[in-house]
Design a protein that fits this description.
- 4 copies of one chain form a homotetramer.
- The first copy, chain A, is of the alpha+beta class and 367 residues long.
- Helix content of chain A is 28%, strand content 22%.
- Chain A has 9 helices and 18 strands.
- In chain A, strands 1-2-3-7-4 form a 5-stranded antiparallel sheet, covered by helices on one side. A 5-stranded antiparallel sheet of chain A has the order 9-8-10-16-11.
- In chain A, a hairpin with a 2-residue loop joins strand 5 and strand 6.
- The longest helix of chain A is centred in the C-terminal third of the chain and has 23 residues.
- Chain A is globular and about 65 Å long.
- The two termini of chain A are 37 Å apart.
- The relative contact order of chain A is 0.16.
- At the A-B interface, strand 1, helix 3, helix 6, strand 11 and helix 7 of A face strand 1, helix 3, helix 6, strand 11 and helix 7 of B.
Chain lengths: 367, 367, 367, 367
Amino acid sequence: MAGSTFGTLLSVTTWGESHGRGIGVVIDGCPAGLPLEENDIQIYLNRRKPGQSRFTTPRKEDDLVEIWSGVFEGKTTGTPISLMVRNTSQRSKDYSEIASYYRPGHADYTYDCKYGFRDYTGGGRSSGRETIGRVAAGAVAARILETLGITVTAYTRAIGPVEISYDRFDLSLMEQNAVNMPDAEAARQAEAHLDSCRAEQDSCGGIIECVIHGMPAGVGEPCFDKLNACLAKAVCSIGAVKGFEIGDGFAAAKSRGSENNDAFCTAENGTIAKKSNHAGGVLGGISDGSDIIFRAAFKPTPSISAEQQTVNRDGENITVSIHGRHDPIIVPRAVVVVECMAALTVLDLLMADMTSRMDRIQAFFRR
Amino acid sequence: MAGSTFGTLLSVTTWGESHGRGIGVVIDGCPAGLPLEENDIQIYLNRRKPGQSRFTTPRKEDDLVEIWSGVFEGKTTGTPISLMVRNTSQRSKDYSEIASYYRPGHADYTYDCKYGFRDYTGGGRSSGRETIGRVAAGAVAARILETLGITVTAYTRAIGPVEISYDRFDLSLMEQNAVNMPDAEAARQAEAHLDSCRAEQDSCGGIIECVIHGMPAGVGEPCFDKLNACLAKAVCSIGAVKGFEIGDGFAAAKSRGSENNDAFCTAENGTIAKKSNHAGGVLGGISDGSDIIFRAAFKPTPSISAEQQTVNRDGENITVSIHGRHDPIIVPRAVVVVECMAALTVLDLLMADMTSRMDRIQAFFRR
Amino acid sequence: MAGSTFGTLLSVTTWGESHGRGIGVVIDGCPAGLPLEENDIQIYLNRRKPGQSRFTTPRKEDDLVEIWSGVFEGKTTGTPISLMVRNTSQRSKDYSEIASYYRPGHADYTYDCKYGFRDYTGGGRSSGRETIGRVAAGAVAARILETLGITVTAYTRAIGPVEISYDRFDLSLMEQNAVNMPDAEAARQAEAHLDSCRAEQDSCGGIIECVIHGMPAGVGEPCFDKLNACLAKAVCSIGAVKGFEIGDGFAAAKSRGSENNDAFCTAENGTIAKKSNHAGGVLGGISDGSDIIFRAAFKPTPSISAEQQTVNRDGENITVSIHGRHDPIIVPRAVVVVECMAALTVLDLLMADMTSRMDRIQAFFRR
Amino acid sequence: MAGSTFGTLLSVTTWGESHGRGIGVVIDGCPAGLPLEENDIQIYLNRRKPGQSRFTTPRKEDDLVEIWSGVFEGKTTGTPISLMVRNTSQRSKDYSEIASYYRPGHADYTYDCKYGFRDYTGGGRSSGRETIGRVAAGAVAARILETLGITVTAYTRAIGPVEISYDRFDLSLMEQNAVNMPDAEAARQAEAHLDSCRAEQDSCGGIIECVIHGMPAGVGEPCFDKLNACLAKAVCSIGAVKGFEIGDGFAAAKSRGSENNDAFCTAENGTIAKKSNHAGGVLGGISDGSDIIFRAAFKPTPSISAEQQTVNRDGENITVSIHGRHDPIIVPRAVVVVECMAALTVLDLLMADMTSRMDRIQAFFRR
């Protein structure tokens, strides 16, 4: 209830602040027998690491993951997996100024209201470094999904006004540019846009899109735990996310039933499919076997070096300018975070679905 | 986990199908001593009742709520409140045809995939009537919030291409038109648009906006249970919702930090406020004392009488045309549902926040 | 969290007071496809019904169960099952006296402390009638377990000083005496003891024993959700239960390791078994394939007609004598309640265990 | 659901195996502003540390706790507190033999059944070292309770056949003997009994009693989350516990209503109290303001060096004799574990009770 645990059957509890000793996560409910070593997780963490491109903070953190429990002789044991990354790059700078006022767009003020005081070094718990736990856990979830033939893939869809074009879509390009766009042309424009933002001491928002492929039909729970509702929560719990949509999303609000409904048809192999996918892979909150497609809107990085007005803890109106190691855009590094939150969500619901039918339960225990 | 329970401290469990004996909800964790009678709930249910306007199904249901437990001598006792509405208007029509195929845009196919079979009468559990339990429970939550000075107000913001204008915004108008729009001019246009949809045997989507006023700063839990994340799940769990955004939402993705950041300032009464509210009342997932403003995108009603292609349970491609008592738009009747889900969400987090500080806990028990 | 919901994957929410309109339960997470009709549940409810013997209250309640949702064409649909029993026998007697003071051994005082006031008619929510919801839900769980080859059987082991003897143990006798003892001789002694208690306007406690047969090895979660811990909570949540033990229980505290350890051995059919069962079927909180055996200690019925000292709501010391429809012993009618709580507990953990191994998950989804 | 998380508002997640890199716990929901340093926790851990007396394993572990997050400038921040103890004394002995068979009374067999294989070094997750996380978290809970005037005190009540006498009861003696008994004479007898057990290569069980003093009346939730039910689960989740009772417990089953009922009376200061405490401080599952008194039965240490029969993983019947660093009794070191589980349980329910009444909620937010 206090907010640091996510999931029911596969349950993930994160801890740690930006400038504390480290950041970590405990994964409970990971099935036994999954081959797992630190490098499986490291490759995910490397994707969110700072210093990867000229648009990410030059802060140098190796962010090396350590497995502290739950793995024995190279395989998960079924008991809690404790993962940890040490904080190594906290500069012993003077935080007394930042402690004294509320940065616009940040959680300084709300943490003070809630808790009476706050860890003001580097954003404390509300820092982007909190996502390390999400990514470490999501890497494990993604591996499990893979063994079931399910892949989760996110990428940058838009940066400020620049959107990718599906005519030029090529996923293999994503890792080759600084903005994680699967479209070389859009990436070039986006980089130019970011350069101009930075030149103006400003920052910029964007959109991440995510596709889940290979989901069996029938996953998701009716009513309050619909697959799309669980994804919405998972994704909106990432700092800086201000919107979520699935399938046609907000565009569906402008469309008509005759356009928005996806016709069912029988595919060549005899399975039932849909001719289109306006629904984004979910009907009535339950997966329909098509790709699940959703998008998340990220606000611009709130830390900008341009001058801003705010108040200090004494309530005095002041003007500030925030300097430090900040990305001009959150989106490229958040791509893997979205992917990981989606993997955790989908795996939890997939496990829950194992108990939905008497015949399947009986077959399971008749093993 | 099976999806029919929502909330932790104030926990709501709904049950019932469209054409079963009734629809109900059990509210657990309602504080003791709240004056409550059936009419307090009925006024909310009347707002989602069919037959209210020419754009809602002529199905006549009185939808009279009955309190079966948890209220004694006019006050809540602190124990579970069981609320129930009997289904009275199920027509004994022949459902054998609808049972045989999968309606596009509906949950027929996914329920079959999940459960092996389905209640095909009137949509069963995936019917819009499922929201009766949400509204009945939300009415209780809204009453509690009111006593704390918090109001939750939703309205129709857009229907198809027609949006309200804030220049003409007048909340008192909302109940005076068939589309729940707080703008008489937009309402007229929207009604015309709906008439043309209906003439073409088609349906249409729309957007609901909701404002929560009076929230103290500091509510919401960090990390996974951010106030906006919990609202996102609550709202996206309503059938037909395809998108959620808070504050500037998807528009924030196109803006810059210098535009999107809200400057803090000290108000005349000495309290800290924000000069603008791009954030929508939430920073770092925690309420900042400003109004909380969010929007939900609804897809068009999937039941349309125009011809559609689909498959039957034998996998044969067929053409169908769905007749029956269906609204050409979901939005107007869903306004109160959005309001109720928001009230339930906010109250649960408000209660959780009571334990966030040692000094407040100590003062509480020193009473 | 407010206490009326039990279980995670199979989740049960009860509602209702002794003298309200009815008592009910919502079962969420019941797998689809289970044949279920009202009579399947009624036979369980009949076992706890008053008026069954001369030691149970002559209050006449038919306690007829009604299925309000979740069953379609004779089978469970996978959506919430709402079950209800109407209260029909509330005598419109004058409760003003009982409202004015705190009955010893009852929850009157504690409910007033917690909630500020209480439903004083017939015990309100703390009445024994609250168990109707547990039994109705447990009947469904027991049916599911049966299809998996698992049976749950409880019986009276002791009434006051009278214990059954395993030399005379015959389960078929249980239903043939007024005290649900599987031992005719002990039953006779127990009935005589109860007659003497009643003659002295007194009541008496007892012990219920429960055996779960057919449980596969490997069920139960390590650490906090051990099978025995979950059973302990389930059983101790029944009003009047003051103790729980599994296997040798408190006697194990007096024994030595060489006596208490159960030797493993290979049975004739090649499966691994234990030569004895001091553990009661659980090792490290996980089922070991032997019978699970536990006991619950019940206190005497607190309502006695002998004079007692207490205080009234004004804090004055008074003397009271409680008359009304009360059993001199709780145990015989509670046998089925214990059985049902055990069934709910075991089924929930059995379902949770489906996700404990990668190989089994992969096989499940490869179906 | 996977068993490593305990509590709802104050939620505790433990991780770690006996011979892994370390053991830890994440506490989520700890209120902000509690002064906390490592030594506050260390004094609790020292009480369960091995090597404290001649009846505890000579295994030398310093068990030094490290705070990794959630504390800033000496106070809790309200965000997750990550605590960790490194394993330093794992002997690199040959475990291949112990890996090959199932130790009687241990979880070897059941873990293999559940997970397909197990961490066989030192018991893995089912080791007694798992309780380090419980104690570290419980120390924090106990500190919070203290500030509210609530103390939790456990002690050894019985070792094998030796029970303490309340005529000689002196809590200050508890720390002065090797068995944590508050009775010098009983302690002498218990030590003699343990010496004889050890001489015979055997072990012995015992009983721990716990008293919670200062609890306000009204804490605990009706129905399934009764205070006693939650305590039962908490305590029975400790490895080796086979029974739980509150107040008169199993003795109540033999008593009569006239003996077992506690008369209410008005104390000199005008407050309502009970003349006796057979109930153990709980009526209807809710605290009544008296001391809460419960007991836990522990089985004998299963590891004994006497010869035992068992089977190996190939199913062959073999004879084994278990050598290693094992206590002949679990009880003395478990005293602090019981105390800590009680503190965690009571604090969680105390927090939950803050939302039970409208008037109190209104007063809280009117602050």
